[in-house]
């Protein structure tokens, strides 16, 4: 049996055999008569009660943290909502120097307006937006640059992410040879160097930014170009009358002929386009694209609370602009990778 004692000189804790009255301190080498001291504190226990609220409200001391974590009883981390990341690719092409019939006036203005809208209204970080225009400081909107940007847009996307692809420029159609188009025509976008590098076909756009989208990720495309109604090759087209009283989703899939799945990996893709596949998109006199102007205007006026209300407001504004400029009527379109109630689903980017 041993009796706890403390050195009278340095207070070092010692153990004295029962019956002994003199002890030599191992620290200061002093012989002394013992005096009783209280027993040392018990060693730390291996189990601890843990309260998440107390843990979050009080930072543990270093000694507490050391003893706590040394026994592998580390508490679970506090629960967090999925971290939402926002990315956007914005492309506007005026085709300057490519001939009077090709040149446009408002596409770069539209691209800058869309960038401002995403930052101001939808809190996109400027660092997460890639701009492709002919303006200095932006990447040239060539085919290779646009392709790289679109692949970057969806790269490593995770549940909770919000992605946006915006394009203002020329669109067109060409014959389809795969049988996956109802009208047997593919929709195409024209990059700045389309004459030498070629166009971007809707099948390619679908492959790059639709099919890779996983569950929990949402991508919006806003395309202000001629013949752009189904330029993402999404399976459902929203048909809606002027009043909004009658509407339905038209299924445009042709599974018996199309050998490739054109949906997502569980995520959601929604596209607003400037007109249907057989119409042309016009510019306003100010200069701005009629569809982009209507899109931004509807959100600024508070008409973009749902997808249906946003589409009706855009169509009303575009129709008025077409009449004022004596242009052929264009009608903005809404397509989606899945069906939903357009008048109850809140719109957000």
From TrEMBL:
It comes from the Eukaryota. Residues 7-28 form the Zinc finger LSD1-type domain. One of its GO terms (molecular function) is cysteine-type endopeptidase activity. Transmembrane segments: none annotated. One of its GO terms (biological process) is proteolysis. GO terms for cellular component: cytoplasm. Residues 85-342 form the Peptidase C14 caspase domain. It holds the Pfam family Peptidase_C14. Belongs to the peptidase C14B family. This is Putative Zinc finger, LSD1-type, Caspase-like domain, metacaspase type I, plant.
């Amino acid at each position: 049996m041993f009796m706890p004692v403390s050195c009278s000189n340095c207070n070092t804790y010692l153990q004295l055999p029962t019956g002994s009255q003199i002890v030599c301190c191992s620290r200061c080498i002093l012989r002394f008569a013992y005096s009783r001291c209280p027993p040392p504190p018990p060693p730390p226990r291996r189990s601890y009660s843990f309260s998440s609220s107390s843990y979050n409200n009080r930072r543990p001391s270093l000694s507490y943290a050391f003893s706590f974590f040394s026994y592998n009883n580390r508490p679970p981390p506090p629960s967090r909502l999925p971290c939402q990341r926002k990315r956007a690719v914005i492309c506007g092409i005026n085709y300057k120097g490519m001939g009077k019939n090709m040149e446009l006036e408002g596409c770069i203005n539209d691209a800058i307006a869309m960038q401002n809208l995403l930052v101001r209204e939808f809190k996109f970080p400027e660092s997460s937006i890639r701009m492709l225009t002919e303006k200095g400081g932006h990447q040239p909107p060539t085919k290779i640059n646009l392709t790289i940007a679109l692949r970057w847009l969806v790269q490593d996307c995770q549940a909770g992410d919000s992605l946006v692809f915006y394009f203002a420029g020329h669109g067109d159609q060409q014959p389809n040879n795969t049988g996956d188009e109802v009208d047997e025509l593919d929709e195409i976008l024209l990059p700045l160097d389309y004459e030498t590098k070629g166009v971007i076909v809707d099948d390619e756009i679908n492959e790059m930014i639709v099919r890779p989208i996983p569950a929990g990720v949402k991508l919006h495309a806003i395309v202000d170009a001629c013949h752009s109604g189904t330029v993402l090759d999404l399976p459902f087209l929203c048909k809606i009358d002027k009043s909004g009283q009658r509407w339905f989703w038209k299924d445009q899939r042709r599974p018996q002929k199309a050998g490739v799945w054109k949906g997502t990996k569980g995520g959601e893709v929604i596209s607003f386009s400037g007109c249907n596949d057989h119409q042309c998109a016009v510019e306003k006199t100010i200069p701005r694209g009629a569809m982009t102007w209507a899109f931004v205007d509807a959100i600024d006026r508070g008409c973009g609370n749902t997808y249906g209300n946003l589409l009706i407001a855009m169509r009303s504004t575009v129709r008025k602009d077409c009449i004022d400029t004596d242009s052929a009527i264009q009608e903005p379109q809404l397509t989606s990778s899945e069906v939903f109630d357009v008048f109850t689903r809140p719109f957000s980017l």
